[in-house]
Amino acid sequence: MRIVEVAITLAVFIFVTASATGFILGRPLFVSYVYSDSMKPTLEQWDLFFINPLSKGDVGDIIVFKLDGKWVVHRIYAISGEGYITKGDNNVATDQQDGKAEPIKRGDVAGKVITIGGKPLKIPRAGKHLNSPYVAVGLVLFGTILLTTGGKKSRKSRKSRRRFLTISFNTLYGLISTILLLMFVFSTMLSWGTIGIGYASTAAGGQREGWYLPGSTFTENITVENRGLYPLLFILEGNGIGEDSAFMLFKGESKDVPVTVKVPEETRVYRENVHVYAFIPILPASTIEKLYGVSPYLPIAVQIAELSVLLTLLRLAIGEGEPIRIKSPRTLWS
User: Fold this and answer.
1) What residues contact 265, with CB distance under 8 A and at least 6 apart?
2) Strands (E), the chain
3) Residue 165 lies inside a defined structural domain of this protein
4) In CATH, what number is assigned to the domain containing residue 245?
5) Residue ranges with strand state E in 156-227
6) Residue 177 domain-assigned?
7) Which of 60, 68, 40, 77 shows the shortest CA–CA distance to 113?
8) pTM score of the predicted model
C-alpha cells in the first residue's frame, strides 16, 4: 500500500507543479480547457483536455497555440512554408483566411492534444472549475496527507485506531502551513483589480463630461487605495500611466495617479482599463518589480517558496511533536 500511496503522491505533485508552472508562465503545459464553442462537437466549451508538449502536431491533429496573445485549441488544416494553417471544427473559415492572422510558427505551439482512437482524451466541463482555488486547496491537502501519513501499523495501533482518530503532528503542521500559505495568496490577490476610464470619441466633444474630440488627448486621475492591514507595493499596468506605475502605500493611504488617454479617430464609446496589482513587500521592491516583469504571478510564487523554506526550518527546529488523538464517535456512543 505504501507504494500505491507514493505513486499517487508523485502523480499529484507532478500535476500540481505543472499546473502552477503553467499558471506562472501563462503557458499551458499538460492540461488546459476550452474557452469557446469553436471546436464543437469535438471539444465543447469548458472541456478539460490533456496536452503532449513534446509534439508540435501534423495535418489533422489538434494543437494548442498562441494567436493574437491568447492560447487557442484548433486543428491543423494545412502546413505552408510559413507555418501552420489552423481552423476550429465549428468554424467556416481558417484562422488565417483573408490575412486575419499569420500562419502559426512551431515556437508558438504548446503541444498536441492527446487523443485515443482519434478522439481527444477529455473530462467534460471540468475546466470550469480548473482555476478554482478550492481545487488547488484540495490537491495540496490531499498530497500533504499522503506524504505525512501511512507506513506500517502494529496490531496494537490498529486496535487503538478503532477507538481514536489519530492525527500525526506532521499532518497537522502540514495542514496549518498550507492554510497559512493559501491565506497569504488570497490576501495578496484580493487587492488586485481593474480601474476603468469610460469616455466617448465624438464630434460633439466637450459638450458633456466624458465626451472628447477624435484624435484629442485628455488626462484623468484614478485613485488607488490600500484597504488592507499592512503595507502593499502597488504596480499599475496600462496605457498612459507614466512614471507612477509602482509605489508603496501603507494601511489606509491612497494615491491619485494621472492617466493620459489618446482618443481614437473612430467615433464610439471606449473604456481604458488600468490593471492594479498589489504585493506584500516581504521581498525588496526592486526584486518584486523585476519578477513582475516576467509574470504578475511570479513574485507570489517566489514569496511562497520563501515562506515555505521558513516554515520547513521552523518545523525542523520544533522537532518531533505528539500526535493528536480524538475519540472515535463509535466509542463516544458505546
Assistant:
1) 201, 214, 215
2) 31-33, 48-52, 62-67, 70-80, 83-87, 109-113, 115-116, 119-120, 122-123, 164-167, 193-201, 211-212, 217-225, 232-237, 246-249, 254-262, 269-279, 324-327
3) no
4) 2.60.40
5) 164-167, 193-201, 211-212, 217-225
6) no
7) 60
8) 0.56
**Domain, as residue range, for 257:** 192-281
Amino acid at 108: D
Does residue 89 sit within a domain?
yes
Phi, psi of 86 (to 5 degrees): -120, 160
Helix (H, G, I), strand (E, B) or coil at 73: strand
The model's pLDDT over 203-213, given as tens digits with 9 standing for 90+, comes to: 999 899 899 99
Total count of residues recorded for the chain: 334
Residue 304 grid coordinates:
511562497
pLDDT computed for residue 154 by the predictor: 47
* Identity of the amino acid at 30: F
Q: Are 288 and 233 in contact (CB under 8 A)?
A: yes
> Pick from 101, 129, 157: which residue ends a domain?
129
C-alpha cell at 270: 471606449
> Is there a contact between 98 and 48 (Cβ–Cβ < 8 Å)?
no
Give the burial class of 55: count Cβ atoms within 10 A of its Cβ; 0-12 exposed, 13-18 middle, 19 or more buried: middle
